[in-house]
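Folds vary. Our protein:
___
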Amino acid sequence: MNKHIERYTASERSNHWAVAILFVLAGLSGLALFHPALFWLTHLFGGGAWTRILHPFLGVAMFLFFLFMAMRFAHHNRWEKNDGQWLRQWKDVVANREDKLPEVGRYNAGQKILFWVLLLSMLVLLATGVVIWRQYFSHLFGIDLIRLAALLHAFAAWVLICSIIVHIYAGIWVKGSIGAMLYGWVSRGWARKHHPGWYKEVSKGESGKR
């Protein structure tokens, strides 16, 4: 029996890292335009004019790659009966008492909430970004709507950045998670400990192939 289980295919990992790279670029260019104190970040993109040109295109590219990834993983992030109980036992989660938690499938309740928050944030960023995209679309909207869109855009960006920080922290906290996204494989022990429901599904599938 193989000692490792494939958690992410090469295609899924490439999709994830494309989103991550675009997030960093869109985030830095957006922060550069957000406040004068951060304007020095525009030097990373060739100056203020280029930053203003590139930021919306980077944002659209990030959304499209994320949407493709979301379509792949949405069915794994459907809310299930055990997820509510998992959240109610948050003290066991924080204390790493995973043996006391309800059986977790491919993703736990925290990961599922993060997934939907990210998707919602991306949708708000796209919609508001179109409204304030001066070169192509802002002339189609009134000034009040543009001002509201700018506020919502900044808020959604803040939510997205905070969510990604949580995502990175969780990946570091649960040893083996980053390796899964780098190399695609996890040990059977890791799968049994953190995602026993998913491990049973994978093992059942392997048995059916024999």
User: Anything to note?
Assistant: The mean pLDDT is 93. The longest strand covers residues 4-6. The chain is about 70% helix and 5% strand.
